Amino acid sequence: MSSASELSKEPVGKQSMTEERPQPTGDSYEELSSDSIEKNTDRILADEADKETNSVDHSLQQAEEQNQLHDNVENNEMVNRNPSESDSDSSSGSDSDSELGKYFYPKFEELEAARKPEPGMKFQTLEDANGFYSTYALLTGFVAKRNSNYRRQKYHIECNRSGKPTPARNPNRKRKINSFERTNCQAKVIVKLTKGQWEFATVRNEHNHPLSPNPSLARFFLSQKHMSSEEKSFLKVLQQSKIPPNKILRIFRRMRSSFGNISFKKQDPVSSVRSSSENIPSKKKDPISLQCTEQRKTENSDVESALKHLKELELRNPSFFYIKQTDEDNIVRSIFWTDARSRMDYNIFGDFISVDTTYTTNRHNLPVATITGINNHGRTLLLGCALLRDGRAETFKWMFQTLLQVLGGKIPGSIITNQDEPLGRAIAEVLPQVRLRFWKCDVMGKAHERIAAFMAARGNIKLELDSLVDNSLTEMEFEEGWSSLIERYDASKNEYLQFMWRIRKIWAPVYFRQDFYPFAESLGRGEGMNIVLFRNYVLPKDRIEKFIERYEEIQKTTLKTDDEDRRQAGTVPSCFSLQPIEKHSSTIYTRQIFLKVQRELLHSTAFDVHVVKKGSVYRLERVFNYENPEFDRNAFEVFVDPVSNTFICQCAKFARDRLLCCHIFRLFTQLGINEIPGQYIVPRWTDKFKEEKAKQYTEKCLEKADSTARYEMLMSKMADLSKKICSDGTKCNAFMLEFDSIQEKLLATDGENPRDNDNCMEIITTS
């Protein structure tokens, strides 16, 4: 079954928006998956199979249109380019590129590294920057052109449909005009030369016209990796002869149909070799089969190298642990790894976890999954990593089953993931009792990409949709607002919006107001934790070992951050006001959580209190604006129960984050409440929480005779004690004498010679 992200690439269903009525109660993810997404997916897969077998002519027609588009752009650039720009272009390009004619041919490496352009991306040469954006344009469905040259230090790479709209053509003109329609499209990147590198200073990705991606052409370019040397040479000859890319695709398709053994469709190495061998009448294998075999060897060697690295880690650090999945040929396909510290952290903070699979090793197209959590300081914890063979639901099921096995069997209360249907199905099967949610930013980001032209043609629909999603406080408000927006902008027939509506209960924040998803919206993790953790450190084309090395760096950084948090725990934080409740909160929470509470206290001063019903209902109205409010609304109501002394705000922050909101804090000030009531002090955000939970965990592990957990416990205690006494030479010497005495006694009990265990002391002191 295709992933939710893949579903977004094709139309899903023909049902009008008005045919589906809002439901007042929430549906489980499993129901949504089986009743709506799965049906559409099955139909789409059938349609795709149809297209692959019966619509070659249609693909060629699309290729012809793409070729004409390339012709028009290139001809226009050849006419409009002035001598200085031409000279600049040639100086930034390569000889090999100039030999390939006027058409853009992406390199295999560029296709592997292709992703959405972002501000701040840097490139060694202007040609690299131009190639990156042109490759993105090819895959997205438009053509890029390079414009302004400001002393060769600033360039605009724009959509070819930029500029004033083309005047209406004469309908009586018989001769065909070889041109394209300009729409004043604003999609572009501005590239500037900064400190010897070319940087994307400005990026605009929204088009005001339909895009025409050509997946067949993209797959063809990617297939170069599997071509034989003879085929690559032939391809280069065609390119040097200025043959358009789509015509080259047609030539190779005809070769495939004529010779029967030429296949450029990406397949599993094993199945690719088998299928190629079956099409050959002789016993000698064709070059493609040999190439696939070589590819499989390369991938396996990379995995074997990663396994060797993991084994070395296990030897150096007894707390490190990994597990692998093998296929029927005993070849390693997936790996999961973690360490004892992460296992303890999961046991303590595993009530909420984030799973992200958005990062892929393009070198072998292997997804990298990270499992992260949030500690009592509100900081991200890397609980484990997995290198997966593919993105199928079965593979994700193995990952979650391994997660439960390795991390002690504890089931999280809530999970948030990127929008991925197979991932969601795996969670529904392995962890059916867990509350599942897709990142809102991921869902909305994909929507903005898929229907950018549709939105651009409808004025403020994007802004209104974002506001509706972000600021709705009740399900009814969201559902009525959605229906009104769809009707107002005549969007009931947009199939992607229909798809978003059908799966709304697994991504829209309003359906998760009462569930524990700490700081999910304020953290803005729509990019995905994988990108945050690995971007700027590991390139997709790097070897797998690089990801493991980055994992080690992240864990070391986490240890340093923990040390800093421990040191801060012994200091008194600064207060911005003289309010007793601020002073009280500074003695309760960890430093980072106190800063979040302090921010709420500051924002509370922007509201006035109005009595709706004395003693039970109060209305908070904003009279001053402040930066980054969680909800862009001017009024909230707080409901009070005097008997139970409970306060419930419309924004539901306490249910989501387990912290009181600025609206309740403002009401506390109005009512003269100077301390946070006990029922609103959640132990999870206090300093003592981890210490107490860690003690319980280690006692539990000791009962199970878990040597790895013992090692982690001893290391943690030694580290804490060392930090306290290292500045006092007298205490340090006294401790070392006592430690030597204890060591001798323990080893003597086992009948061992202390001199044979000097390495043990070295390990402790080094750590």
UniProtKB/TrEMBL annotation:
<keyword id="KW-0863">Zinc-finger</keyword>
<keyword id="KW-0539">Nucleus</keyword>
<keyword id="KW-0862">Zinc</keyword>
<dbReference type="InterPro" id="IPR018289">
    <property type="entry name" value="MULE_transposase_dom"/>
</dbReference>
<dbReference type="InterPro" id="IPR031052">
    <property type="entry name" value="FHY3/FAR1"/>
</dbReference>
<comment type="function">
    <text>Putative transcription activator involved in regulating light control of development.</text>
</comment>
<dbReference type="InterPro" id="IPR007527">
    <property type="entry name" value="Znf_SWIM"/>
</dbReference>
<feature type="region of interest" description="Disordered">
    <location>
        <begin position="1"/>
        <end position="101"/>
    </location>
</feature>
<feature type="compositionally biased region" description="Polar residues">
    <location>
        <begin position="56"/>
        <end position="66"/>
    </location>
</feature>
<dbReference type="Pfam" id="PF03101">
    <property type="entry name" value="FAR1"/>
</dbReference>
<dbReference type="GO" id="GO:0008270">
    <property type="term" value="F:zinc ion binding"/>
</dbReference>
<feature type="compositionally biased region" description="Polar residues">
    <location>
        <begin position="74"/>
        <end position="83"/>
    </location>
</feature>
<feature type="compositionally biased region" description="Basic and acidic residues">
    <location>
        <begin position="36"/>
        <end position="55"/>
    </location>
</feature>
<comment type="similarity">
    <text>Belongs to the FHY3/FAR1 family.</text>
</comment>
<feature type="region of interest" description="Disordered">
    <location>
        <begin position="270"/>
        <end position="295"/>
    </location>
</feature>
<feature type="domain" description="SWIM-type">
    <location>
        <begin position="636"/>
        <end position="672"/>
    </location>
</feature>
<feature type="compositionally biased region" description="Basic and acidic residues">
    <location>
        <begin position="7"/>
        <end position="22"/>
    </location>
</feature>
<protein>
    <recommendedName>
        <fullName>Protein FAR1-RELATED SEQUENCE</fullName>
    </recommendedName>
</protein>
<dbReference type="GO" id="GO:0006355">
    <property type="term" value="P:regulation of DNA-templated transcription"/>
</dbReference>
<feature type="compositionally biased region" description="Polar residues">
    <location>
        <begin position="270"/>
        <end position="280"/>
    </location>
</feature>
<keyword id="KW-0479">Metal-binding</keyword>
<dbReference type="Pfam" id="PF10551">
    <property type="entry name" value="MULE"/>
</dbReference>
<dbReference type="InterPro" id="IPR004330">
    <property type="entry name" value="FAR1_DNA_bnd_dom"/>
</dbReference>
<dbReference type="GO" id="GO:0005634">
    <property type="term" value="C:nucleus"/>
</dbReference>
